[in-house]
Amino acid sequence: MITKEEFTRVLTNPDWYIQGSIYTIVDGKDSKVNETYKSYAEYLSNLPTLINNKTVFKIQDLEKFNNAIVKKCSQLFEIWKKPVNCHAYWGYADTKSFDKHTDPCEVCIYICEGIKQIDLDQKQSIIREGQHLYIKANEPHAAKNLTDCLSLSFGTEDFTETYCETGMDISL
């Protein structure tokens, strides 16, 4: 659904930097690169070091990136009956994104390239390129990249909480 080359283009695109959609993940904590680096030029100059240090990267807001991702979000919307967002993760072999955690929503992990191990509360799953794994809301899980790995994480958004608590009148 996304290639490493496409991920790299987004990772080095100033628009994605400015909108705050690019993150680094170090020691289980994610940080927006536009808050860590005061300018796009500073970020780009530090990118080779981040790559050499095998930093895990996350890109948010891929819901409309390409037709395949839009289609998957639409399919999951039909199942979950809630809006669906998409994040991409690039991690090197033997790296992890986050420590064991839960998500308040349902999640579908899809592997674009590589192999990932998902440790759930009661079992361990290995997912490979072209495979996916559904994780229930609030189910404890952790992921480890067994090889260099590009994955997508699709999750639901609670429309009422996310959008309606802004105090805006959205009556139709």
Explain what the structure shows.
This protein folds into two domains: 4-59, no CATH class; 67-162, Jelly Rolls (Sandwich), CATH 2.60.120. A hairpin with a 3-residue loop joins strand 6 (115-120) and strand 7. It has helices spanning 4-11, 14-18, 33-36, 40-52, 67-80, 159-164, and strands spanning 22-26, 29-32, 56-59, 84-91, 107-113, 115-120, 124-128, 132-135, 141-145, 149-156. The radius of gyration is 16 Å and the shape is globular. The chain is built from six helices and ten strands, in the order H-H-E-E-H-H-E-H-E-E-E-E-E-E-E-H. By secondary structure, the protein is an alpha+beta fold.
User: Roughly what fraction of the amino acids lie in strands?
Assistant: 25-35%
User: Could you name the CATH class of the largest domain?
Assistant: Mainly Beta
Q: What string, H for helix and E for strand, traces the elements in order?
A: HHEEHHEHEEEEEEEH
Number of helices: 6
CATH architecture of the largest domain: Sandwich
Average pLDDT figure = 90
Strand order of the largest sheet: 2-1-3-4-10-5-8
End-to-end separation:
35 Å
The H-level CATH homologous superfamily of the largest domain, spelled out, is: Jelly Rolls
Number of domains: 2
Radius of gyration equals 16 Å
- The low-confidence runs, each spanning 5 or more residues with pLDDT under 50, are 161-172
Helix/strand-derived class?
Answer: alpha+beta
Gross morphology: globular
Largest sheet: 7 strands, antiparallel
How helical, in percent, are the residues?
A: 25-40%
Question: Which fold name corresponds to the CATH topology of the largest domain?
Answer: Jelly Rolls
Number of strands: 10
